[in-house]
Design goal:
Largest sheet: 8 strands, parallel
Structural class: alpha/beta
Number of helices: 13
Order of helices and strands: EEEHEHEHEHHHEHEHEHHEHHH
Helix content: 25-40%
Strand order of the largest sheet: 3-4-5-6-7-8-9-10
Length: 342
């Protein structure tokens, strides 16, 4: 039984873009050489939504994604491309610099969606316009100012989310950065803008400044261990499209993996599905866009073949929710010296 192939996303001036309901993630964990072939396999399998980010491997991964798009023969207009800027590009004067780097490296004229990767900003060095990202890149490569205290660099609390600034006893707001992002839509370099890893409070801070150019999407971690129900409900109420990274969850400190969970495996077997296919189906049924990643061609194909689950199977996965924040597997709080998820 089929489920939604696309979800509507609000953009500037009340326009709507139909976004493919399953995306393909391009995060280059530990290396970059796999990306072109995996992305090309995804496009040939039918994916029309690619999730990228400057941090995912910088020029190398962006080049491979761009090469895959061109080699696929699929018209650019049929592929939805998302990218994100890392916090050292978060000052208002720097957000366009990251987008320019991405477009140059991908060989594209525009991206469909441009996101702030985190609700925090770190101070950049003067060579930010030529910064480089790749696995194991140093802060020198990334053009991040650092004093040695924080892995993620020196915080720019003036431009970070107001709750982070307030916790440090200073005034700050992400609004000026958001306003700089909204201005990029008129340049034609991106069709829409949004955020990633923003809480309800942080979204509420931006909403008064998101009338003409809305917060089109918020990308967050969500899966049966961490369904993020309250945040997703808030986003849907405000027409902010929820996209979810790590739909299979990462490995917990204990070594536990959602993909190995007994219930997940039993429900997948019952439905004659792969576990990744099952978890992506669960995500789409919740009106969220899963952004699963794989280098295996067969799993790439299977993860796209989402279908509607019986109510009892959907609930069995939903009941795997862990207490509080125990299900979270991605958290950069230590790197940046702020508590992202409180």
């Amino acid at each position: 039984m089929s489920i939604s192939a696309t979800f509507p996303m609000k953009t500037a001036n009340g326009n709507i873009i139909d976004v493919p309901s399953v995306g393909f993630g391009t995060w280059a964990a530990g290396g970059t050489g796999w990306c072109k072939q995996a992305t090309l396999a995804a496009l040939k399998a039918g994916y029309r939504h690619l999730d990228c980010a400057w941090k995912y491997g910088g020029a190398k991964v962006d080049e491979e994604v761009g090469d895959a798009i061109r080699e696929s023969g699929i018209p650019r207009s049929e592929i939805f491309v998302t990218t994100k800027f890392w916090p050292q590009f978060g000052a208002p004067e720097n957000v366009e610099k990251c987008l320019n780097l991405v477009l140059k490296n991908m060989g594209l004229d525009y991206v469909d969606l441009y996101l702030a990767h985190w609700p925090v900003v770190v101070k950049a060095r003067s060579n930010i316009a030529s910064a480089k990202a790749f696995p194991e890149a140093t802060n020198d490569d990334l053009a991040i100012a650092t004093d040695g205290k924080l892995e993620g660099g020196v915080l720019d609390l003036e431009h970070s989310a107001s709750n982070f600034a307030a916790a440090a006893g200073v005034k700050g707001s992400f609004v000026p950065t958001w306003q700089a992002m909204t201005e990029l839509v008129a340049t034609g370099k991106c069709r829409a803008v949004g955020v990633s890893n923003f809480s309800i409070t942080q979204l509420q801070d931006l909403l008064p400044y998101a009338q003409d150019v809305p917060i089109s999407s918020n990308q967050i971690e969500a899966h049966p261990w961490l369904p993020n129900d309250e945040l997703i409900t808030f986003m849907l109420h405000h027409d902010i499209l929820p996209a979810v990274y790590s739909p299979f969850a990462g490995q917990k400190a204990s070594g536990d993996m959602l993909l190995e969970d007994t219930t997940v495996k039993q429900v997948a077997q019952k439905n004659d599905m792969g576990v990744g296919q099952l978890l992506q189906s669960w995500a789409v049924m919740r009106r969220t866009i899963p952004l699963g990643k794989s280098q295996n061609e067969e799993r790439i194909k299977a993860n796209l073949a989402v279908r509607k689950l019986a109510e009892e199977d959907f609930e069995a996965l939903s009941n795997l929710k862990l207490k509080g924040d125990e299900g979270r597997t991605i958290d950069y709080s230590g790197s940046f010296g702020v508590q992202f998820f409180v």
